[in-house]
Amino acid sequence: MAKLTARQTRSKTFKSGNAWTSRTIVCGSGMNLIFVGTEVGPWSKTGGLGDVLGGLPPAMAANGHRVMTVSPRYDQYKDAWDTDVVIEDNQLRFSLLCQAALEAPRVLALNSNEYFSGPYGEEVIFIANDWHTALIPCYLKTIYKPKGI
């Protein structure tokens, strides 16, 4: 498959608030954004953070940015399975979430269609939301930056 051009487009319809909106997604021309949080509406939402992470990433994608959202997979998701992994310690649990979020764009092979051409690489902006993801900037500075990543 040939390299993707900088401005390939496709139409995408998504729900914004109470209305369905059709936007053109311009892939490859914007920033690589990784949103990290513990809630993503409509799947896991207890307050405003779930609303933001349910609406802002699709809106940013519609404006030409490549977007990934990283969140825990809770058991209320459709087709979720029990992994038998129980982590009672919130510090460890959210530390693992932060580490997974930092590694996801580097290692996931996102070749699901012609518009997504593999891992994000190193030019990524992480948007850490709430205290659960507060270790992301710390890990970036102390682990990744010294390695030149």
Automatic annotation (TrEMBL):
Please provide the record's keywords in A-Z order.
Glycosyltransferase, Starch biosynthesis, Transferase
According to its UniProt entry, one GO biological process term is: starch biosynthetic process
Q: Which residues form the Starch synthase catalytic domain?
A: 33-81, 85-146
| InterPro entries per record | Starch_synth_cat_dom (IPR013534)
Ranges in coiled-coil conformation: none
| Pathway the protein takes part in | Glycan biosynthesis; starch biosynthesis
- Identify a single GO molecular function assigned to this protein: glycosyltransferase activity
Matching PANTHER family = GRANULE-BOUND STARCH SYNTHASE 1, CHLOROPLASTIC/AMYLOPLASTIC, STARCH SYNTHASE, CHLOROPLASTIC_AMYLOPLASTIC
State what protein this is by name.
Starch synthase catalytic domain-containing protein
| Organism this protein belongs to | Castanea mollissima (Chinese chestnut)
